[in-house]
Q: What sequence folds into this?
């Protein structure tokens, strides 16, 4: 993707979550994906692999009461496939994305409202 000129932001599934309710970034992304599904996110009803990935994943709470997903090794030991398709969908929730309107504000001579955020994923880009 980089060679094609796209800006790529790497996502480490084991990195810290921006939300303390989730053990790591993977659990956070799945949590955000779950909220989107509950709010009506449409997925392809004919995608049996994605559907199976979504229902096979389970979670528990760690010692700090944060949501922790069942590991891929645990799933493999239970004879379940790695949830690769669902992980790919969850990656779409790794970083906030500006709406088209927000991207057009500067070109229209408008400014974005000042917003205070606790988490800025672009700080790591320097």
A:
């Amino acid at each position: 993707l980089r060679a094609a000129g796209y800006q790529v932001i790497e996502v480490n599934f084991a990195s810290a979550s921006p939300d303390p309710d989730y053990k790591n970034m993977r659990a956070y992304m799945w949590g955000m994906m779950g909220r989107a599904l509950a709010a009506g996110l449409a997925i392809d009803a004919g995608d049996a692999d994605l559907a199976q990935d979504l229902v096979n994943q389970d979670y528990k709470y760690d010692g700090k009461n944060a949501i922790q997903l069942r590991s891929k090794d645990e799933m493999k030991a239970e004879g379940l496939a790695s949830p690769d398709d669902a992980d790919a969908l969850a990656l779409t929730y790794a970083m906030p994305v500006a709406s088209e309107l927000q991207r057009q504000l500067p070109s229209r001579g408008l400014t974005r409202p000042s917003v205070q955020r606790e988490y800025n994923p672009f700080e790591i880009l320097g």
In short: Residues 23 and 68 are 5 Å apart (CA to CA). The chain has a mean pLDDT of 85. The longest strand covers residues 59-61.
